[in-house]
Amino acid sequence: MLSESSGTTGRSRLAVVPARHAFGAEIEDLDLRTIDDDDFSSIYRAWLHHSVLLFRGQILTDDDLIAFSEKFGELDWAPVQESGRRFVEGHPEIYVVSNVIKNGEPIGSLGAGEAAWHTDMSYLPDPPKASILYALEVPPAGGNTYFCNMYRAYELLPEELKRRTERLMLKHDGTYNSGGYVRQGVTAADNLITSRGAFHPLVCTHAETKRRVLYLGRRRNAYIDGLSLPDSESLLDQLWSYATREEFAWHNEWRVGDLVLWDNRCTMHRRDPFDETARRIMHRTQIKGENAPQRMNGAPDRRRKDKLKKVCLIAVQH
Ligand code: OGA
Ligand code: MN
Protein backbone atom coordinates (compact mmCIF):
# COMPACT_ATOMS: atom_id res chain seq x y z
CA MET A 1 0.00 0.00 0.00
CA LEU A 2 1.15 3.48 -0.80
CA SER A 3 0.00 6.14 1.63
CA GLU A 4 -0.47 9.69 0.49
CA SER A 5 -0.33 12.48 3.01
CA SER A 6 -3.34 14.66 2.47
CA GLY A 7 -2.11 17.70 4.36
CA THR A 8 -3.27 19.24 7.59
CA THR A 9 -7.03 19.11 7.28
CA GLY A 10 -9.44 16.23 6.87
CA ARG A 11 -8.21 12.65 7.11
CA SER A 12 -4.48 12.40 7.38
CA ARG A 13 -3.88 9.64 4.82
CA LEU A 14 -5.39 8.29 1.67
CA ALA A 15 -4.97 4.54 1.11
CA VAL A 16 -3.79 4.09 -2.49
CA VAL A 17 -3.23 0.45 -3.44
CA PRO A 18 -1.46 0.18 -6.81
CA ALA A 19 -2.10 -2.76 -9.11
CA ARG A 20 0.56 -4.62 -11.11
CA HIS A 21 3.12 -2.35 -12.79
CA ALA A 22 1.56 0.58 -10.85
CA PHE A 23 -0.99 0.88 -13.64
CA GLY A 24 -4.42 1.17 -12.04
CA ALA A 25 -4.91 1.61 -8.29
CA GLU A 26 -7.67 1.24 -5.76
CA ILE A 27 -8.31 4.01 -3.26
CA GLU A 28 -9.78 2.38 -0.19
CA ASP A 29 -12.20 3.55 2.46
CA LEU A 30 -13.19 6.84 0.97
CA ASP A 31 -16.71 8.23 0.64
CA LEU A 32 -16.54 10.44 -2.44
CA ARG A 33 -19.44 12.56 -1.13
CA THR A 34 -17.32 13.86 1.72
CA ILE A 35 -13.86 14.54 0.31
CA ASP A 36 -12.10 17.82 1.05
CA ASP A 37 -9.61 19.78 -1.08
CA ASP A 38 -6.62 17.90 0.31
CA ASP A 39 -8.23 14.55 -0.45
CA PHE A 40 -8.97 15.76 -3.93
CA SER A 41 -5.39 16.84 -4.63
CA SER A 42 -4.18 13.43 -3.46
CA ILE A 43 -6.74 11.74 -5.70
CA TYR A 44 -5.67 13.90 -8.64
CA ARG A 45 -1.99 13.07 -8.12
CA ALA A 46 -2.78 9.37 -7.79
CA TRP A 47 -4.88 9.53 -10.95
CA LEU A 48 -2.08 11.12 -13.00
CA HIS A 49 0.33 8.54 -11.64
CA HIS A 50 -1.77 5.36 -12.01
CA SER A 51 -4.03 6.47 -14.93
CA VAL A 52 -7.04 4.45 -13.65
CA LEU A 53 -8.52 4.61 -10.15
CA LEU A 54 -11.13 2.40 -8.54
CA PHE A 55 -13.25 3.48 -5.56
CA ARG A 56 -15.53 0.77 -4.17
CA GLY A 57 -18.62 0.95 -2.01
CA GLN A 58 -19.89 4.34 -3.16
CA ILE A 59 -23.50 5.40 -2.72
CA LEU A 60 -24.00 8.23 -5.20
CA THR A 61 -26.99 9.98 -6.69
CA ASP A 62 -26.54 11.44 -10.18
CA ASP A 63 -26.00 14.83 -8.53
CA ASP A 64 -23.25 13.35 -6.32
CA LEU A 65 -21.61 11.75 -9.36
CA ILE A 66 -21.73 15.05 -11.22
CA ALA A 67 -20.38 16.99 -8.21
CA PHE A 68 -17.38 14.63 -7.89
CA SER A 69 -16.78 14.66 -11.67
CA GLU A 70 -16.86 18.46 -11.84
CA LYS A 71 -13.88 18.66 -9.52
CA PHE A 72 -11.79 17.46 -12.48
CA GLY A 73 -13.02 20.18 -14.84
CA GLU A 74 -15.95 21.18 -16.97
CA LEU A 75 -18.17 18.26 -18.03
CA ASP A 76 -19.27 17.41 -21.54
CA TRP A 77 -22.90 16.87 -22.25
CA ALA A 78 -23.37 13.17 -22.78
CA PRO A 79 -23.26 11.90 -26.36
CA VAL A 80 -26.59 10.92 -27.92
CA GLN A 81 -27.60 7.39 -26.84
CA GLU A 82 -27.92 4.67 -29.48
CA SER A 83 -31.71 4.94 -29.18
CA GLY A 84 -31.50 8.60 -30.24
CA ARG A 85 -32.44 9.77 -26.77
CA ARG A 86 -30.28 12.65 -25.70
CA PHE A 87 -29.67 12.05 -21.98
CA VAL A 88 -31.09 11.33 -18.57
CA GLU A 89 -33.90 13.75 -17.82
CA GLY A 90 -32.58 16.72 -15.87
CA HIS A 91 -28.95 15.52 -16.06
CA PRO A 92 -27.50 16.25 -19.48
CA GLU A 93 -24.04 15.23 -18.24
CA ILE A 94 -25.02 11.61 -17.57
CA TYR A 95 -24.53 8.95 -20.24
CA VAL A 96 -26.15 5.59 -19.54
CA VAL A 97 -24.33 2.38 -20.44
CA SER A 98 -26.90 -0.38 -20.15
CA ASN A 99 -28.57 -3.33 -21.84
CA VAL A 100 -31.85 -2.84 -19.93
CA ILE A 101 -34.94 -2.41 -22.12
CA LYS A 102 -37.78 -0.25 -20.82
CA ASN A 103 -41.00 0.31 -22.77
CA GLY A 104 -39.43 -1.45 -25.74
CA GLU A 105 -36.41 0.85 -25.85
CA PRO A 106 -32.90 0.45 -24.42
CA ILE A 107 -32.32 2.87 -21.53
CA GLY A 108 -28.64 3.13 -22.45
CA SER A 109 -25.95 2.19 -24.94
CA LEU A 110 -23.56 -0.67 -25.73
CA GLY A 111 -26.03 -3.53 -25.16
CA ALA A 112 -24.64 -6.75 -23.66
CA GLY A 113 -22.02 -7.55 -26.30
CA GLU A 114 -18.32 -6.99 -26.25
CA ALA A 115 -17.12 -3.39 -26.44
CA ALA A 116 -13.89 -3.31 -28.43
CA TRP A 117 -10.73 -1.49 -27.27
CA HIS A 118 -11.11 2.27 -27.57
CA THR A 119 -10.40 5.70 -26.16
CA ASP A 120 -13.61 7.63 -25.53
CA MET A 121 -14.57 9.92 -28.40
CA SER A 122 -11.15 10.26 -29.95
CA TYR A 123 -12.94 10.84 -33.27
CA LEU A 124 -13.48 14.43 -32.06
CA PRO A 125 -10.89 17.19 -32.42
CA ASP A 126 -10.84 17.62 -28.60
CA PRO A 127 -11.60 14.29 -26.93
CA PRO A 128 -12.56 14.23 -23.22
CA LYS A 129 -9.60 14.07 -20.85
CA ALA A 130 -11.27 11.69 -18.42
CA SER A 131 -14.32 9.49 -18.00
CA ILE A 132 -15.97 8.23 -14.83
CA LEU A 133 -18.11 5.10 -14.78
CA TYR A 134 -20.30 4.27 -11.80
CA ALA A 135 -21.99 0.88 -11.33
CA LEU A 136 -25.67 0.86 -10.32
CA GLU A 137 -26.53 -2.72 -11.35
CA VAL A 138 -24.11 -5.43 -12.46
CA PRO A 139 -24.59 -8.91 -13.93
CA PRO A 140 -23.55 -11.93 -11.83
CA ALA A 141 -20.76 -12.70 -14.33
CA GLY A 142 -19.08 -11.03 -17.30
CA GLY A 143 -19.16 -7.37 -18.28
CA ASN A 144 -15.67 -6.81 -16.84
CA THR A 145 -13.87 -3.72 -18.10
CA TYR A 146 -10.17 -3.83 -19.10
CA PHE A 147 -7.76 -0.93 -19.40
CA CYS A 148 -4.43 -0.74 -21.19
CA ASN A 149 -1.54 1.59 -20.61
CA MET A 150 -0.55 3.67 -23.63
CA TYR A 151 2.61 5.05 -21.97
CA ARG A 152 3.76 1.48 -21.68
CA ALA A 153 2.72 0.75 -25.27
CA TYR A 154 4.97 3.55 -26.49
CA GLU A 155 7.86 2.44 -24.27
CA LEU A 156 7.60 -1.14 -25.57
CA LEU A 157 8.00 -0.11 -29.21
CA PRO A 158 11.37 -0.98 -30.72
CA GLU A 159 13.40 2.17 -31.51
CA GLU A 160 12.84 1.75 -35.21
CA LEU A 161 9.05 1.75 -34.76
CA LYS A 162 9.23 4.75 -32.44
CA ARG A 163 11.07 6.69 -35.09
CA ARG A 164 8.69 5.57 -37.81
CA THR A 165 5.55 6.55 -35.94
CA GLU A 166 6.51 9.81 -34.31
CA ARG A 167 5.70 12.01 -37.30
CA LEU A 168 2.59 10.17 -38.46
CA MET A 169 -1.06 11.20 -38.15
CA LEU A 170 -3.87 8.73 -37.52
CA LYS A 171 -7.52 9.05 -38.44
CA HIS A 172 -9.83 8.05 -35.57
CA ASP A 173 -13.10 6.85 -37.04
CA GLY A 174 -16.38 8.28 -35.79
CA THR A 175 -18.78 5.99 -37.63
CA TYR A 176 -19.20 3.25 -35.02
CA ASN A 177 -19.12 3.15 -31.25
CA SER A 178 -17.15 0.49 -29.40
CA GLY A 179 -20.15 -1.85 -29.36
CA GLY A 180 -20.23 -1.76 -33.17
CA TYR A 181 -23.37 0.42 -33.27
CA VAL A 182 -23.54 3.19 -35.86
CA ARG A 183 -23.51 6.58 -34.15
CA GLN A 184 -26.54 8.80 -34.30
CA GLY A 185 -26.83 10.82 -37.50
CA VAL A 186 -24.09 8.85 -39.29
CA THR A 187 -24.38 6.41 -42.19
CA ALA A 188 -22.63 3.05 -41.84
CA ALA A 189 -19.45 3.07 -43.94
CA ASP A 190 -16.18 1.19 -43.95
CA ASN A 191 -14.16 3.16 -46.44
CA LEU A 192 -10.99 3.97 -44.54
CA ILE A 193 -10.25 7.03 -46.64
CA THR A 194 -13.65 8.69 -46.71
CA SER A 195 -15.22 7.68 -43.40
CA ARG A 196 -15.63 10.51 -40.93
CA GLY A 197 -13.26 11.11 -38.04
CA ALA A 198 -10.51 13.30 -36.60
CA PHE A 199 -6.78 13.18 -37.27
CA HIS A 200 -4.43 13.07 -34.28
CA PRO A 201 -0.69 12.41 -33.99
CA LEU A 202 0.09 8.72 -33.46
CA VAL A 203 2.55 9.64 -30.73
CA CYS A 204 1.36 12.37 -28.39
CA THR A 205 2.66 14.13 -25.31
CA HIS A 206 0.32 13.92 -22.34
CA ALA A 207 -0.72 17.49 -21.50
CA GLU A 208 -0.04 17.12 -17.76
CA THR A 209 2.52 14.37 -17.20
CA LYS A 210 4.44 15.34 -20.37
CA ARG A 211 5.08 11.64 -20.98
CA ARG A 212 4.79 10.15 -24.45
CA VAL A 213 1.85 7.95 -25.37
CA LEU A 214 0.92 5.87 -28.36
CA TYR A 215 -2.49 7.27 -29.28
CA LEU A 216 -4.51 4.64 -31.15
CA GLY A 217 -8.14 5.44 -30.29
CA ARG A 218 -9.87 2.50 -31.95
CA ARG A 219 -8.99 -0.06 -34.58
CA ARG A 220 -12.02 -0.10 -36.85
CA ASN A 221 -11.62 2.19 -39.89
CA ALA A 222 -8.37 3.58 -38.48
CA TYR A 223 -6.07 4.92 -41.16
CA ILE A 224 -2.54 6.31 -41.05
CA ASP A 225 -2.43 9.41 -43.18
CA GLY A 226 -0.23 9.22 -46.25
CA LEU A 227 0.32 5.45 -46.25
CA SER A 228 -1.12 2.97 -48.72
CA LEU A 229 -4.03 1.02 -47.23
CA PRO A 230 -2.02 -2.23 -46.88
CA ASP A 231 0.91 -0.36 -45.27
CA SER A 232 -1.42 1.45 -42.89
CA GLU A 233 -3.16 -1.80 -41.91
CA SER A 234 0.06 -3.66 -41.32
CA LEU A 235 1.66 -0.87 -39.27
CA LEU A 236 -1.53 -0.52 -37.20
CA ASP A 237 -1.64 -4.27 -36.52
CA GLN A 238 1.94 -4.11 -35.35
CA LEU A 239 1.31 -1.11 -33.08
CA TRP A 240 -1.84 -2.64 -31.60
CA SER A 241 0.06 -5.78 -30.67
CA TYR A 242 2.16 -3.67 -28.26
CA ALA A 243 -0.80 -1.76 -26.85
CA THR A 244 -3.16 -4.52 -25.78
CA ARG A 245 -0.82 -7.02 -24.12
CA GLU A 246 -2.66 -8.89 -21.43
CA GLU A 247 0.24 -8.70 -18.96
CA PHE A 248 0.07 -4.90 -18.83
CA ALA A 249 -3.71 -4.52 -18.65
CA TRP A 250 -5.73 -3.81 -15.52
CA HIS A 251 -9.35 -4.87 -15.20
CA ASN A 252 -12.30 -4.44 -12.92
CA GLU A 253 -14.82 -7.11 -12.02
CA TRP A 254 -17.65 -4.78 -11.20
CA ARG A 255 -19.57 -4.65 -7.93
CA VAL A 256 -22.49 -2.35 -7.30
CA GLY A 257 -21.12 0.95 -5.95
CA ASP A 258 -17.81 0.76 -7.85
CA LEU A 259 -16.63 3.98 -9.44
CA VAL A 260 -13.80 3.87 -11.96
CA LEU A 261 -12.09 7.02 -13.15
CA TRP A 262 -9.71 6.85 -16.11
CA ASP A 263 -7.34 9.18 -17.88
CA ASN A 264 -8.61 9.07 -21.43
CA ARG A 265 -5.37 10.56 -22.79
CA CYS A 266 -3.12 7.62 -21.89
CA THR A 267 -5.40 4.55 -21.68
CA MET A 268 -7.77 2.51 -23.82
CA HIS A 269 -10.52 0.26 -22.49
CA ARG A 270 -12.72 -2.63 -23.60
CA ARG A 271 -15.57 -4.62 -22.05
CA ASP A 272 -16.37 -8.31 -21.95
CA PRO A 273 -19.81 -9.40 -23.11
CA PHE A 274 -22.31 -10.70 -20.56
CA ASP A 275 -25.61 -12.62 -20.46
CA GLU A 276 -28.15 -10.42 -22.19
CA THR A 277 -30.91 -11.54 -19.83
CA ALA A 278 -28.94 -10.11 -16.88
CA ARG A 279 -29.12 -6.40 -16.06
CA ARG A 280 -26.20 -3.99 -16.11
CA ILE A 281 -26.68 -0.26 -15.50
CA MET A 282 -23.76 2.17 -15.37
CA HIS A 283 -23.83 5.95 -15.32
CA ARG A 284 -20.94 7.79 -16.93
CA THR A 285 -19.67 11.34 -16.96
CA GLN A 286 -16.88 12.71 -19.09
CA ILE A 287 -14.59 15.66 -18.43
CA LYS A 288 -13.87 18.00 -21.30
CA GLY A 289 -10.44 17.90 -22.85
CA GLU A 290 -8.48 21.10 -22.40
CA ASN A 291 -6.30 20.55 -25.47
CA ALA A 292 -6.36 18.56 -28.66
CA PRO A 293 -3.88 15.66 -28.35
CA GLN A 294 -0.44 17.21 -28.90
CA ARG A 295 2.30 15.92 -31.13
CA MET A 296 5.29 14.74 -29.07
CA ASN A 297 7.42 17.85 -29.56
CA GLY A 298 4.39 20.11 -29.12
CA ALA A 299 4.75 21.56 -32.62
CA PRO A 300 1.51 22.20 -34.47
CA ASP A 301 0.97 20.19 -37.61
CA ARG A 302 -0.35 22.05 -40.61
CA ARG A 303 -1.91 19.02 -42.30
CA ARG A 304 -3.81 18.35 -39.15
CA LYS A 305 -5.26 21.86 -38.92
CA ASP A 306 -6.55 21.68 -42.49
CA LYS A 307 -8.12 18.31 -41.85
CA LEU A 308 -9.59 19.35 -38.54
CA LYS A 309 -11.55 22.09 -40.23
CA LYS A 310 -13.22 19.49 -42.40
CA VAL A 311 -13.99 17.05 -39.64
CA CYS A 312 -15.31 19.78 -37.35
CA LEU A 313 -18.03 20.39 -39.86
CA ILE A 314 -19.23 16.83 -39.66
CA ALA A 315 -18.49 16.25 -36.00
CA VAL A 316 -21.07 18.63 -34.55
CA GLN A 317 -23.47 16.95 -32.14
CA HIS A 318 -21.26 13.91 -31.60
C1 OGA B 1 -17.67 3.69 -21.50
C2 OGA B 1 -17.38 2.29 -21.81
C3 OGA B 1 -17.53 0.07 -20.97
C4 OGA B 1 -18.25 -0.63 -19.87
O1 OGA B 1 -18.53 3.95 -20.66
O2 OGA B 1 -17.03 4.58 -22.10
O3 OGA B 1 -16.67 2.01 -22.73
O4 OGA B 1 -17.65 -1.44 -19.21
N1 OGA B 1 -17.93 1.40 -21.00
O5 OGA B 1 -19.43 -0.37 -19.68
MN1 MN C 1 -15.73 3.89 -23.52
Features:
alpha+beta, Double-stranded beta-helix, nine-stranded mixed β-sheet, four-stranded antiparallel β-sheet, binds N-oxalylglycine, binds manganese (II) ion
Overview of this structure, please?
The chain has 318 residues and is α+β, with helices and mostly antiparallel strands. The chain has one domain (2-315): 4-Layer Sandwich (Double-stranded beta-helix), CATH 3.60.130. The protein has helices at 37-50, 62-70, 150-156, 159-165, 229-243, 302-315; strands at 2-5, 13-18, 25-28, 52-55, 95-98, 101-102, 105-106, 109-110, 115-118, 130-137, 145-149, 169-173, 197-201, 203-205, 212-214, 223-224, 250-252, 259-263, 267-271, 281-287, 294-295. It has a 9-stranded mixed beta sheet with strand order 1-2-3-4-18-10-20-5-8, with helices on one face. Strand 1 (2-5) and strand 2 (13-18) form a beta hairpin. The chain is globular and about 50 Å long. Residues 5-10 and 308-318 have low confidence and may be disordered. It binds N-oxalylglycine and manganese (II) ion. The site of N-oxalylglycine has 12 residues, from strand 10, strand 19 and strand 20. Residues 118, 120, 178, 269 line the site of manganese (II) ion.
